Amino acid sequence: MGEPLSAADARILALESDVVRGHALKLLVLDPGEALDLDAVRASVAARLPAFPRGRHVVVDEDGGPAWVDAGEVDLAHHVRRRPAADPAALRATVGQLMSEPLDRARPLWTIDLIGPLADGREALAIRLHHAVADGLTAVRFLESVVLEPHDAPAHEVGIRDPEARPSRWSEWERMPLTLARELGHPGSHSPFDRPITAHRALAFVDVPLAEARAVGAARPEHATVNDVLLAVIAGALRRRLLHHGHVPRLNAQVPVSLHERGEDAAASGNRDSFVDVGLHLHEGDDARRLDLISADTRARKHGHDARALDELFHALAAAGPVGAALRGLADDPREFALAVSNVPGPRVAVSVGGRRVAHVYTSSEPGPRHALRVAAISNDRWLGIGFCVDPEAVPDVELLADAAHDAWEALRA
């Protein structure tokens, strides 16, 4: 008998379709240097994979539903491969192709592709992990355990919660009316990203200096977090692009919130997150004022413990049949949130692969039906790397959206 998937992991697995692949991608861009040795990378991954047990498991169907079982010998020639790319455009095209290809359900649900070397000597590693295997924080544990060279820095505590500080279940239910009013009581306009999607993917990336993002947040009258700054950058980018098309709607962003707790085995805990919905205030023309409005919204949701309350609610509704499904459908409606914007803390110190420093880290999660744009961010010791992923048939010119994010950041920085 295998280990049954958690309800959250099983739900994510069931979302797979001809147009939804179910995986996320982490992209590590290395400083210029001698090309990585593919066999050496495979040997390193093989030696370290036992530290992340889920990386050796496959999903099988059992009488009680999907379950994890040990895969036996893992074929590293399949899971760790090389793909050529000569320039940044070819690199983006390759990762777009990887995001469009399903992972093989008969094997452990991850791959590592060495891409390049580029003409300037840089090289990249594209790591795909199925979302049923790992949420954002758990995926970083995979990087630390299996891919990056070992280091002594402790794991990042951002997103890890103290179990002793958890509010009582009764207090969560007592606050539920206010939580629902904040989270589901302010639907946006018709979303410009509410479009059918295909399996095709296009990606673009932009960097924000992490220390400067912290400084921008600290300089506001009410302290704004790095995540608030990220949301303001995305909102500024959307306003610029939508103004170009002549219409600025009222849009909400769904922001995943980690529910991982200190002391748990993050490498084996799968998906432990909830969400809040935050208005992006696209009507506000001043970038700094928009940041203040977004920051006020996120503070209210933190103080109300909205993410945990919603997690409790949807767990309770999971057994409620059609009623629960209907409310979940309401929460997933494009007017409730036009796009998801996630942010996870990556390596907090300088890290390397094969003796070469990781200069930049990006992440990408795929869009979903009626949500044709997805934004994901990850930090390293120097940068906040932001990845835009779209179906190019529904949202063309994703590079222009990344350019607009750069302009929005420069406006905040000024």
UniProtKB/TrEMBL annotation:
Reactions it catalyzes: an acyl-CoA + a 1,2-diacyl-sn-glycerol = a triacyl-sn-glycerol + CoA
Annotated O-acyltransferase WSD1 C-terminal domain residues: 270-412
Pathway annotation: Glycerolipid metabolism; triacylglycerol biosynthesis; Lipid metabolism
UniProt-listed Pfam families: WS_DGAT_C (PF06974), WS_DGAT_cat (PF03007)
Superkingdom of source: Bacteria
O-acyltransferase WSD1-like N-terminal domain location: 5-158
SUPFAM superfamilies in UniProt: CoA-dependent acyltransferases
InterPro entries for the chain: CAT-like_dom_sf, O-acyltransferase_WSD1-like, O-acyltransferase_WSD1_C, O-acyltransferase_WSD1_N
Keywords: Acyltransferase, Glycerol metabolism, Lipid biosynthesis, Lipid metabolism, Transferase
UniProt GO BP: biological process involved in interaction with host; glycerol metabolic process; response to hypoxia; response to nitric oxide; triglyceride biosynthetic process
EC number: 2.3.1.20
GO molecular function, one term: diacylglycerol O-acyltransferase activity
GO annotations of cellular component type: plasma membrane
Family of this protein: Belongs to the long-chain O-acyltransferase family.
PANTHER family, per database record: O-ACYLTRANSFERASE (WSD1-LIKE) FAMILY PROTEIN, WAX ESTER SYNTHASE_DIACYLGLYCEROL ACYLTRANSFERASE 4-RELATED
UniProt-recorded name of the protein: diacylglycerol O-acyltransferase
